[in-house]
Amino acid sequence: MEHSTLLWTLGSPKTLSDTSACLVLTADALSFIKERSKVSTVPLKNKKASSFHEFARNTSDAWDIGDDEEEDFSSPAFQTLNSKVALATAAQVLENHSKLRVKPERSQSTTSDVPASYKVIKSSSDAQLSRNSSDSCLRNPLHKQQSLPLRPVIPLVARISDQNASGAPPMTVREKTRLEKFRQLLSSHNTDLDELRKCSWPGVPREVRPVTWRLLSGYLPANTERRKLTLQRKREEYFGFIEQYYDSRNEEHHQDTYRQIHIDIPRTNPLIPLFQQPLVQEIFERILFIWAIRHPASGYVQGINDLVTPFFVVFLSEYVEEDVENFDVTNLSQDMLRSIEADSFWCMSKLLDGIQDNYTFAQPGIQKKVKALEELVSRIDEQVHNHFRRYEVEYLQFAFRWMNNLLMRELPLRCTIRLWDTYQSEPEGFSHFHLYVCAAFLIKWRKEILDEEDFQGLLMLLQNLPTIHWGNEEIGLLLAEAYRLKYMFADAPNHYRR
Fold first, then answer.
1. Can you list the pairs that 355-364 forms with residues at least 24 positions away whose Cβ atoms lie under 8 Å?
2. Is Ribonucleoprotein among the key words of this record (predicted)?
3. Rounded mean pLDDT of 377-400?
4. Span 290-295, average pLDDT
5. Architecture of the 364-496 domain
């Protein structure tokens, strides 16, 4: 190994969103570290947070450090990354890399010692693509986010959104039959929504996903004759909000909200070129700002920006036959863009109506869901639960993001879209069924979890799970297991009691 790049991400006190700082070590430095590794140590014990607020205080929002364009690594917040910590961390990485040669199946996870006050988080896409971007990071460790790393071989959205990870053809005979069933349902005078949900649970064909999502979210009426007028009225209503409220982003009492949105949007799916286009980012800014000022109980919270992306991609696919993630939206007409924007806003609003307590002050909804996940796992797999307790890993340290971002940071976007097919067809899918999906997702990695025998290794594993190659097949198995858990535990409160 000629070079090693360490990626540490500082958590946000609100949502633990992604933001990375690169510490780059040259080959000469690594040889020096090997000599020092025997004497350089970092305490492994992680201080438990006695409350949510203490947990929040123990995290740092890197986006508030220095200038928005370039993080200042000389600021006090970064002074804790002293040479002793850096050397010890790098030494641990070297040791773990040597272990990886013995256990090749774990090659996609990188472990390292991390100061306990830092939250180490990274999207699944980032984890898998860090190798591709290592050369550019070595050349310029403070490179601005506008320069994207090399593209992965497997698209994150694109046309394989309806394919298995094995790359099977998207339209089998069975899929053609299902597509015809959907078209019959959608074209009937009054669409049977119960039947539509039943058909959508195993996944919605790409060709009919936009109208199906509008119906399942409650945005469109079941009556086909009313749909056109409803779309026209709701789209006009949204752009009425733009005319009425959007200029207020320049007012002092909205500056903090708009500034945070403006910072977060370029960091939304940074590896997908579609979301780095200025026009797309302007659309996202408007959607998020209008939602925030119309929901003052929560306002904008980091993480909500992620929830726009599946809707945007699905409604964009209504007009695009080709590769979605590299599509230039300036090729669309103004009317098409306005329709995509308004529909994304309303469907996101419908979703958030059911989980708004996740984003109100202190985010009580997330705290309850994380606690429920801990209790559920303690009944499902006591060995995994006790393993976390032994190494003082708190569920809040990894599951906060799972609840806040609905697993979007753990899965490629194509998988999120497939997952949301089921969430929208399942009663209280986003607010209730998601808990069982998270439990199934955690237990999926039980072997890897039990193989880790220190706090840092466990946390790095749980926040860099190797899902970059996942497709419909893996999501289908995950959902089946989640459904089994729900069937066994949802109506059995005694299972939660110790």
1. 355/430, 355/431, 356/295, 356/297, 356/298, 358/403, 358/404, 359/298, 359/299, 359/301, 359/303, 359/304, 360/297, 360/298, 361/298, 362/52, 362/53, 363/14, 363/52, 363/301, 363/404
2. no
3. 96
4. 94
5. Orthogonal Bundle (1.10)
